[in-house]
Amino acid sequence: MSEKDANPSAKDALVGGSLFGRWEKLRGREGTVVGITAILVAVFPYIFARAPVVSGVLQGYQSLATLILIWGIFAIGFDLLLGYTGLLSFGHAAFWGGAAYAAGIVAKNVSGDPIVMVVSGTLFAVLLAWVLGFLSLRRSGIYFSILTLAFAQMFYYMAASPLAFLTNGENGLTGVEVGSFLGVIHLEADIPSVGGMLLGTWLYAFVGAFFVGAVAVAYRILNSPYGMVFRAIRENEQRAEFVGFNVWRYKLMAFIISGAFAGIAGSLFTIHGAYVPLQSLFWTESGDIVVMTVLGGAGSMFGPVLGVGLYLYIENIVSTIQALTIPFTGIVLVRDFGFYWHLLLGLVFVVVVWVVPDGLWGILTRLRELAVDLGSRAANRVRSRFGNGGDGR
C-alpha cells in the first residue's frame, strides 16, 4: 500500500469516523460499562472532595460522596420498576427504611458485621416486597401507586408506636454499632497509600463495591430476555399478555428486584450513619426517589444516579450557602440563599422535565449524538478532500 493510500484512513481514525465507530461498538458491552463504572467510582471522591481547585469549587466532602452512591443503588433499583416496567410505586420507603431498621436491629442484637447487616436488611426487603407486591399488583395504575403508599405509611406508623420497643419510636434507632469488615478492617478508617488518596475511607470502598455490583446486575437484567419482557410490559401490557407472557408474574418479579436494590441501599444507609431515623419510612423518602429518578431520566441506566447527585448536592451543599454573590465583586444578590433550596430544586425539576422530559441523561445523550454527528461530518470532509485531490488540495 502506498503512502498516498494510507494517509486518508489514518486521518479518518484520528478525526472521528473510525474512532467513534469503534467506541459505539465498545460502549454497549457489559465489560465496558462495568469497567468504566468502576473507574468513575474510584476517582469520584477524589475529584469531589480532594482535587485541587475542583473540590474547592464544588465544596464536596467524603461522606456526601458515599451517600450519593448509596442513594444511587436505590435509584437504579427504583428505575427498574418505574423506567423499564412502567410501574410507579409511592411506597419504596417501606423497603429502604425497613431494610435500614432490620440491619440496625440485627447489629444491636446479633452481629454488627457489615456483611451480615446488608444480607439481613436485603432479605427483609425482599420478603416485604414479595408480600406488598403480591397484594398491590392486584390493581394497576393509580390504584397500585396508592396501595403502595398506604402500605408504606402503615409501616411508618407501626414503627412510630406499636413497634417502638424495637425501633425506638420517634427518636429513631440509636446505638447501632457497626463492626469491622471481616473482623479486621474498620470501615471508618482511611485507606493507606494511593488508594486512600482516591477512595478515602474503607467505607466508601465497601459501598462502591456494592454500587458497581448493582450496576452489573441491573445491566445484566436489562439486557436479558427478562429485561426485554419488562420493556414490553411498559410499552403495551395487553400485547405482552396476548403473546403468552404471564404479565403479573413478571411485574411481581420486577417489584421484588426493585425492593432488593432498595434493601441493599437501606442497609448501607444504616452502616453509613450508624443510626436509623424514623423519617426513613416516611412517604417523603418515596417521593424523593421518584423526583431523583425522573430528574435524572427514567428508563436510562445512569440517569437516575445523576438525579441523585444533583438532588443531594442541592440539599447538602447549596442549602448551606448563606448569601448568593456576584463572583469577584462581593455584591450580594440573595441573602440566606440556602434557605430557598427547596424552591431552587423545584425550579430545576420543572425546567428539566419541561424542556428535556428524558432528564439529565437525555441532555448528555443529545450532546453525545451531536459530537458523533460533528465527528462524522469532519470525517466525511477529510475523506472527500483526500479522495478528490489525494494530496489535500
Automatic annotation (TrEMBL):
Keywords: Cell membrane, Membrane, Transmembrane, Transmembrane helix
Membrane-traversing stretches: 31-49, 61-82, 89-108, 114-135, 142-159, 202-222, 252-277, 289-312, 340-364
UniProt-recorded Gene Ontology molecular function terms: branched-chain amino acid transmembrane transporter activity
Native source organism of the sequence: Haloferax volcanii (strain ATCC 29605 / DSM 3757 / JCM 8879 / NBRC 14742 / NCIMB 2012 / VKM B-1768 / DS2)
The protein's name: Putative branched-chain amino acids ABC transporter permease
Top-level taxonomy: Archaea, Methanobacteriati, Methanobacteriota, Stenosarchaea group, Halobacteria
PANTHER family listed in its UniProt record: ABC TRANSPORTER ATP-BINDING PROTEIN (PTHR30482:SF17), HIGH-AFFINITY BRANCHED-CHAIN AMINO ACID TRANSPORT SYSTEM PERMEASE (PTHR30482)
Keyword Cell membrane applies: yes
Subcellular location: Cell membrane
InterPro entries to which the protein is assigned, alphabetical: ABC_transp_permease, LivM-like
